[in-house]
Amino acid sequence: DPKDPAGLVPSGMATGFLFVAADATSVSEFLHSTLQLFLITAMVVLLISLIICSITVQRMVDPLKGVCAFAHKFAHGEVDTRVTEYANRDDEIGELAIAFNAMADSLAQAEQKRSEFVANVSHELKTPLTSIISYTELLQQEEGLPDHVQDYIRVLSDKSKRLQVMVRDVFE
Fold first, then answer.
1. What residues contact 137, with CB distance under 8 A and at least 6 apart?
2. Residues 86 and 97: beta-carbon distance below 8 Å
3. Per-residue confidence (pLDDT) for residue 1, from 0 to 100
4. Would you tell me the crossing angle of helices 92-141 and 24-75 to the nearest 10 degrees?
5. What does residue 3 show for φ and ψ, rounded to 5 degrees?
6. CB under 8 Å to 122, separation ≥6 — which residues?
7. Interacting residues of 73 by C-beta distance below 8 A, sequence separation 6+
8. Closest residue by Cα to residue 104 from 84, 80, 87, 85
9. pTM of the full structure
């Protein structure tokens, strides 16, 4: 076993005790300053966390507000509105923009088909109605027809003209 330099005590053995005494006010000041440092650090961390959360929430909400604005425009009749500024994103906002544009395209196609259908139906109804109205007007000018036949022709003429107005309204 190695000995101490004087050669009296083997190394690692206690040879005495050291007592430290401090005034209680210094311990209380230490605890007070530690608590103060902890509170200041906690406030700074909380403030930084609030700022980061606010920025993060704002970055998530702004695109949703943008897509919502496009949806409102679309709902108010601006059917050519498309979401272009968020469609290239690789997140849920980009998916929402793509879905909105697909919906708008689908509705535009449906509107075009509806317009074509109404135009075709209107045209197909106008042609025979015009003939019916023309023939009833000719028949009304005929003399010598019995009264009940004249009544039938008048009813036919009135109903045909009413139907013609309805077809015109549908077309418009």
1. 157
2. yes
3. 44
4. 20
5. -110, 165
6. 167, 168, 170, 171
7. 81
8. 80
9. 0.53
Cβ pair 70, 81 in contact under 8 A:
yes
Which amino acid would we find at residue 41? T
Tokens read off for 48 = 């930084």
The token duo for 58 is 């704002």
pLDDT of residue 28: 84
Burial of 32 (0-12, 13-18, 19+ CB in 10 A): exposed
The answer to whether 83 touches 101, Cβ cutoff 8 Å, is yes
- The alpha carbons of the chain give a radius of gyration, in whole angstroms, of 46
14 Cβ contact list (under 8 Å, min separation 6): none
Distances 20 to 23, 26, 27, 29, 30 between C-alpha atoms, Å: 10, 13, 13, 17, 16
CB distance 121 to 107 below 8 Å: no
pLDDT score for 60: 85
Task: Report the chain (172 residues): mean pLDDT per 10 consecutive residues.
Answer: 54 68 77 94 97 93 87 85 83 88 90 87 84 88 87 90 86 75
Cα 153 from Cα 164, distance rounded (Å):
16
Q: How many Å separate Cα 38 from the centre of its chain?
A: 44
